[in-house]
Amino acid sequence: MPPLADCRFFRFIIPNMENQIRLPVPFSNGVRDNMSNPVEVITTNGQSWSISWVVEEEHPHQIVFTGGWRAFYEHYHLRIGDSMLLSYHQPKFFYVAIHDTRYCEINYGRNLRNRSLPVIPAHGNYTVQFFAIIPVNDPDTLKLPLRFSREYGRSLPRPLTLTTPTGHRHRVGWNMQPNGRIVLHGGWDDVRARYGLRDEWLVLFRYHTVQSTMYVMFFNGHTMEINYLDHAGPRTDCTCITNPSAPRSRHIADGFRSTNPFFVSPIMHRLANRFLPNVPPLPGVCKDSPITITNERGAWTVRYTHYVGRTNGCFGIGWSALATACQLRHGHVCVFERLAPQEYRLHIY
């Protein structure tokens, strides 16, 4: 099995995609300076393909797979409506799982040998993988693919336990429609609310028949996975590291739009012009490290300290200069947008 992916996203096959395929803008912006060219694309049956890429002139923010893509496209008989789940492992590798028009993963190892339509696959450390698209204006239910429902509906436990990447388990009820389709209902609305899921986002399911366990991952409107592994408070499509409790902070977090992780910190402490308390653990940062914070007023180096035995840390040395320059005062809310492990951009509300 490949190691944990740095980033996952979906791409749907649409007309005129035989010769090239564009990758999401947020992904392209984050990796194009460091990604190898060509990259290796590895499918679930172990085959490896070398594919080169360019940054398209008409869409300067998008990476486009070109050289080698057509051979890949034809070899796997891709057609309009199919989709690919790409898992990027920097700086060179993509692991790809291909799904058919019914949203179920295709076992191309069996398909290419027999030259026939595949059945639901059984490979990797799960029995079957599929996805569903969250419907518009229906927060209480989610329909699973008919193909999965008919194959596994008789053995699916009630209620169904959904396990998220954070390890949290959610019990969700389900019914079967007359045509055999499974519909999630009781408890699904709580999952949507907890993870801030929105209409037309994607939910990836991996079902283990032996364990009777369903693992889920969530993908936002850019078809990119929302990585909750290192973040405590899943609320938005832009991955809020914290889970704000104050109404104003929560409102700002819900409205903040970025493809980067961020955290929200209200200015409430009477000594906030000297140091900023309650800074969450920062992914990729040691417990006592310098952090670069920038905004339109300038750039500052601030010492981040994470106290042993405590959940949060603080911004100390260097914070006073930042607070003075930015004229921070009680009642302001700061959003710290992560640009790199030790580089953040400050937004003040």
TrEMBL record:
Keyword Transcription regulation: yes
SUPFAM superfamilies linked to this entry: DNA-binding pseudobarrel domain (SSF101936)
Gene Ontology molecular-function annotations: DNA binding
Domain of life: Eukaryota
Record domain TF-B3: where: 6-102, 127-222
UniProt keyword list: DNA-binding, Nucleus, Transcription, Transcription regulation
Species this chain originates from: Arachis hypogaea (Peanut)
Main location: nucleus
SMART domains: B3
Annotated InterPro entries: B3_DNA-bd, DNA-bd_pseudobarrel_sf, Plant_B3_domain
One Pfam family hit: B3
Any single Gene Ontology cellular-component annotation: nucleus
Protein name as annotated: TF-B3 domain-containing protein
Metal-binding is among the record's keywords: no
Compartments in which it is found: Nucleus
CDD domains: B3_DNA
